[in-house]
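Query form — protein aldehyde dehydrogenase (NAD(+))

QUESTION: What is the three-dimensional structure of this chain?
INPUT:
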Amino acid sequence: MARQIVSVIGGKELPSGTPYASINPARPSETVATVLLAGADTFAEACRTAAAAQREWAQIPAPVRGRVIASIGRLVEANAEELARLVTREVGKPYREALGEVREIIDTCDFFLGEGRRLYGQTVPSEMPDKQLFTFRVPVGVAAVITAGNFPVAVPSWYLVPALLCGNAVVWKPAEYAAASAHALYRIFAAAGLPDGVLNVVFADGPETYAGLERALGEGTVHKVGFTGSTAVGRAIGELCGRHLQSPCLELGGKNPMVIMPDADLDLAVEGALFSGFGTAGQRCTSLGTAIVHEDVHDEFLDRFVTAVRNAKIGDPNGDVLYGPLLDHKFAERFEEYLTWIQPHHTVLPGPIGRMEGEGLYYHPVIVDGVRPDDRLFLEETFGPIVGVTTFSTLDEAIELANKPGYGLSSSIYTTDPKAAFRFRAGVSAGMVSVNNSTSGAEAHLPFGGNGKSGNGSRQSGMWVLDQFTRWQAMNWDYSGRLQKAQMDVAEITPDLGFRL
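ANSWER: The structure tokens for aldehyde dehydrogenase (NAD(+)) are given below.
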């Protein structure tokens, strides 16, 4: 029987709300969990609870908070297989990929456990005698974190771990279609010894979450918003936060280009295109959008790519497959809409398109050759197993095509020429660049994030995310015993500027 999942605020479960069925997309008739969705009032209440708990949490020394993060990492490690199996069951991610996603939480914890001893400020020399200047990192307060379900446990950890380490409290709103996975992760965090109210989880739909966030911002109980999801929703959250003079941490969609130069190792390029285009059924923000292939190698690359896709296994995510089902019914419906963007001038490969036979939300992989720069398939994110292919003649043209959609998350170039690699890096607008590697793949100690339609320049992961969850505070300490006025009482040394040899 499916479990019932409820919101948890201040360590207490809220056994009320509107029922929502989180299904197994490989067998949609199977309900993984019944989720009780809360409303805007509950979200605002969670933010008030977090604000009250945050003050005491911030007083705990940062190295001690780091030990809590270390405990989270060890607990995730001890529960890795069970958590990965739950992710596979709830969102249809192949088990091997799900294990990798869980590993990413462990890596994130391992990186940040030491940052509790490295929340460095600086001692800065003063222009005055008998005066010292200091800088400190201080927590922002309460972080409201809203995450998607394609990476239901790894991506949330990118927000939760550094936010908690830095002394903030968190209200986390996961995707409702991945509620069981999120609730399991919450329980692991709670078992590490977090005080009640420091981490709260609220299950709600989009409109209620937005209304609750708007209320909390108005009440002053949210000081940072982290959001992973679509560009359209990211814009709305950015506008809302802007009205309160806040800058959210936005990780949005992508139309990620892969440039294949005439000197590329085509077998390697095909392997990268297969993984980044169709891994997780193309439902990553870093999934390959368009392969931009030099005209001299287009035909050969396409032949090899089509063969690789045709030979790939799609099916039960518990088996050895390239990808499993789409995440949920709503993503299947959107993918079917994307298929209507195929035009007569396109060549569709390798075979049938649309939903595969059987119960699960399985869809055939689609390669669309001949996409043009003004096609919707070229310009807009297509969240699902579909990859466009186009051609170029010069590297400058390839860079222009790579930037044209206006996204700027991830990118890739396959070449053996270092000059081409560095010219591409300098010219592409993406926040992340891979050379002879796929557009997908993140490591816990590198900055993750995009520009343009892919985000507002904020970064997750690595030490760079600390700037999202701390504020800089400056302090000056004058022990001269008199008022020294900056820029006015500064000693002057007069040079002889007319001196010449």
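ADDITIONAL NOTE: The two ends are 92 Å apart (CA to CA).
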